[in-house]
Amino acid sequence: MKSSVTAFTWKLLPLVLFVMLFCNGCWDKKEFNQLAIAQTIAMDYEEEQYKLTVQLVMPAASDEEISGDSMWLISGEGDSVAEALEQISRSAPRELYLAHLDIVLLGEGLLRHDISQGLEYFIKEDVLRRRTNLLAVEGAAGELLQAKLKLADVDIYYLRNLLRDQRQWVKNGDTVINDYYLAMDKRLPEGLVIPRIRTKDEKALYLDGAALIQNNHLLCWMEQDWLDSYRWVTGGAEIRTLPDDKSHDAVTVEVRKDRCEWELVSAEPLQIRAKLKGKLLITENKLKNNIQSIEELEEFRRQIQQEMETILKKEAEKDFALLQQKGCDALRLGRWLYAWHPELVHPEKWNSQFSQLQIDVQIETAVRSDA
Amino acid sequence: MLPVLLIQENGTAGLLAIVPGLAVGILILLVCTFWRNRCEETSFPQSLQMLLGKPAGMVTTFLFLLLYLLFAVFCLSSFVEVVHTGILKETPRILLLLPVFLLAGWLAWNGLEDIARFTVLAAVLAVLLLFLTVTGSIGSFQMKNLLPLQIHSPEKLIQSIGYSSFSYSMFLVMFMVYPALPQKKGIAWQMPLAAALSAALFLLWVLLALGVFGQFSMEQLIWLPLELARMIQVSAFLERTEALFIAIWLPVVLANSGLLLWAASEAAHQLLHRQKSRWLHWGMVAIAAVFSIAIGNLLQLFYLEQALAAIIAGFVPLLLLAILAATLLYSRKKAGRKGGQPS
Q1: Which among A16, A74, B123, B275 is placed 20 to 30 Å from A111, CA to CA?
Q2: What's the pTM value of the predicted model, to 2 decimals?
Q3: Which architecture does CATH list for B2-340?
Q4: C-alpha dist (Å) from residue B81 to A31, B117, B224
């Protein structure tokens, strides 16, 4: 009995070994030095042609670190994204590897045409993850990627650092593919805010403003001061210097914003309260030598708080009103309202409902000890 | 795939369809316990012949065998499809199928004890996977993506309940497993508790996915665990974990399919009154593997699931009723015989 079991095991062994040969994933192996690893991609749409510019890293096997010599830019054009990519594949000296794409730059042409057309191919091919970052470029995205800046070359590390630095100031400020999907829900459309990246005097890159997207199209470009107010929705921080004034000259305040809390005030007419909470840190105070007592200090802080709240409230109201004027719910208010009060929302008419609803802005701040 | 179907047809409240499915699962376990308590002396195939008559009993045993095989095919083919479409796109599908069938068959061959030990590991890994997914996705989770709870298509709720019932009908395997379990106090309530816990974990997965992806996006997803794995990012420490995820998921799949193949093999052996035969066992595994190879793509897998769900919807209630009724009759006869025996 034992010998027949052993005999059968021996007969099974070659099959097991044969199968094991294919269990180590070598069929899908990718040799590092045979790949053109795409780090960043810029998508443009001009004259009815999709144009892709891909930044590729093609390291040698002996490279211990990636240098500028290993980076290449290749462009392709076509009637569709797939055609443009095919052109790039034919030009690339190595096998194109797209699975490491971290950032997608969307050019103005594509933003005005239709973002979904640009992204659809990559999403269906499982190339883009839902965590891939989106950045908007005013003008041609490919040109930005090819820009020769004085400070540094435009590459994935530079872009990643910009985003990382932004994260220190802004919570949930990145726009990723998942945000795109959430915003494009046809049942309840909302606006999408994609940070804009620009060059400054051909010296450096910086994040400034954003593209406001609705129904897969660029609605308009928004400036940085609008974005600062918008940050009340997502949370974040900004530095504000109070206006030049006899009593409050040169007082700089860091405003740390919590995420906006919405509250239904009334159903008819539809009125929502936006409760914006934050902390104020006085970072620069050239008047501190004038303050002699604790009471004076407390009075000073109270005045700063009041002044800041007035300014911030005015700006928030103005910027929310701007969105309402455009009929674009980039505040994700519809999603909140639909989640907690679905009976009040008409999804197919949400854009016009959003334009007409009353948003009451309430700001609560607390002054923390001087930074 | 089940949660996608639930959400697609019904929105968030489609998750409620899990409850009837779980109820079917618990009902199966209760009928199984009832049968076992009254027919301790026989195995399930023998019981069926005793309860339903020899021809009907044999046919029913054969149907059970087929069901176990098809469940195993479905389980392993789904996993291979995830790996093939998501990770190893160039590796031929057959080369992914054969090793998993070999492993599951080997696990089944070694018997229930090895499967039980393996399942302990699989349970730990399932919890680890959940922890990993929750940690990595928590930053993207928002309640407002999940709500409101509403049914989009009430007419498809019945269909969703059908799919949910199909999923929990895999508990039919307990009819083969229960006789092999040692007589232990508490098994009768531990099994439904385990079923409820597994349903709770499953629900947690789906709620997490809804909170991250939203209801609209969920309709477009096919492989939910893979998509959630792609969202995992714990600072710069942990990202791009889907390959690791799949590797951790493998033991869970193997434990389930190993048990199903064991049950199919055991049913075949008892039907043919054979002792442990390697040719019979590996023949069954080979048949299942060939059937899996024939299922070439995801669409065919969906069709298989639809067909099985339809069969289960009609078959399981009748079967449970028949077993219940027959067991009651048998136990009364047995009681009558004992009462009539001379002291």
Answers
A1: A74
A2: 0.83
A3: Up-down Bundle (1.20)
A4: 25, 27, 13
